[in-house]
Amino acid sequence: MSLIVGILLTCVAGLAGTLLCPDDRGGRAKLPLLAALLSGGLAWHAPARAGEVLRGPAQVIDGETLRVGAHQISLFGIAAPEADATCSNAQDQPYPCGRAAALALAARIGSAPIACEPHGDGADGTGLALCRVGDADLGAWMVAQGFAVPDRAATLDYTKAAERAWARRQGLWSGVFQDLTERRTRKPTAVPDRTAIQAWSE
Prior knowledge:
Blueprint: H1 2-20, H2 32-44, E1 54-56, E2 58-60, E3 65-68, E4 71-75, E5 78-79, E6 87-88, E7 94-95, H3 97-109, E8 114-121, E9 127-133, E10 136-137, H4 138-144, E11 149-150, H5 159-167, H6 194-200
Parallel strand pairs: 4-9
Antiparallel strand pairs: 1-8, 2-3, 3-4, 5-11, 6-7, 8-9, 9-10
């Protein structure tokens, strides 16, 4: 949609430049190209609006954050470790869980194009979106593999997937990690247990 808006604004800017800025040698505009490029660039970088589906290749920033074209978005309904986060495994040894989550998401997407439907903005101002590869919900996949947990403040849709990941001790659930949904306040958590999973469905 932003591409279409960019084309329309380019045409309008070119016409306005021709009418408002003629030169002395036959009525041609001095700056229509500059105006067209400026307006087109602004339209291309405009933020995604509700209902506008973003499509294309994705660049993975961390286990929940992607860049699609000019848009940086976070996967709706989940919380994953930040890129530089460290967790502990079953032997209480540290490992780069943030990097593991990002690599898992990148491997799941591969070179396939994704489609993201905006779902508002997160607390940090980053746009939230429900993103899919084909029919597969990337947020649901990350939770099911244990690389992310549900954000119950946003949705309860991923609770069952988290329960299965916990039961199988997959990904983060194989060791100890900080409560990802509370990471902005940096509250530590105890070893993940069934109580934490049950709390998400309340």
